[in-house]
Amino acid sequence: DSSPRLPAPKDVKVYSYNFHNTLRWSPVKVERGVVLYTVHFKTGAFNQWDEMNCTRITRTECSFPLSLNERLWTFVLRVRSELGQMTSDWVEADPFVAERDTTIGPPKVNSVIVSSDSLLISVSPPFESKEGTVQYKVSYWENATTATKEEMWVNNALFKIENLKQMTLYCFTVEIELVKYLHEQIPGLQRIPECYRTPMN
């Protein structure tokens, strides 16, 4: 194929946050004309490239369609630049497995009910938790300079921090962990601490 070649896209990488997956790359600069990009994918099971929903697009990213929302499949994606009849070489991203490679964000704190000796906390995961189960790591401490952090693991989205002192400011933070089939855990990002003062009994 002796036609002149366009420069290929660089920095081709899949970014994934809470199982929302996007292929991104750096723009290809040319003197004149608008460079378009085409993205293909294949799975670990089939060695055959297929079109994604990103053929001859101007933007430098391509979100995975819902049909590719399998968290345990291996996906390989490739992109090339196109201008008129000219194309670049294909550039492949590293193989991507969502359950291994996604970044898990912090859980959402829905409500906190404060009593004189406890905090009743309701949280929800930042993504639809279908594969495996999730658990929450809760750290809490008295908001004093010498306070030591207590930690507990809970499987429920509603839990209680108990045996607290009255009229004391307590802070807590929560992170989520995805528990996979082989009892391998994928930790998530920690929430910003929240603080509540227990009332008098």
TrEMBL record:
Residues 105-201 form the Fibronectin type-III domain. InterPro entries: FN3_dom (IPR003961), FN3_sf (IPR036116), Ig-like_fold (IPR013783), Interferon/interleukin_rcp_dom (IPR015373), Type-II_Cytokine-TF_Rcpt (IPR050650). GO terms for cellular component: plasma membrane. Transmembrane segments: none annotated. CDD domains: FN3. GO terms for molecular function: cytokine receptor activity. It comes from the Eukaryota. This is INGR2 protein. It comes from Asarcornis scutulata. The lineage of its organism: Eukaryota, Metazoa, Chordata, Craniata, Vertebrata. The gene is Ifngr2.
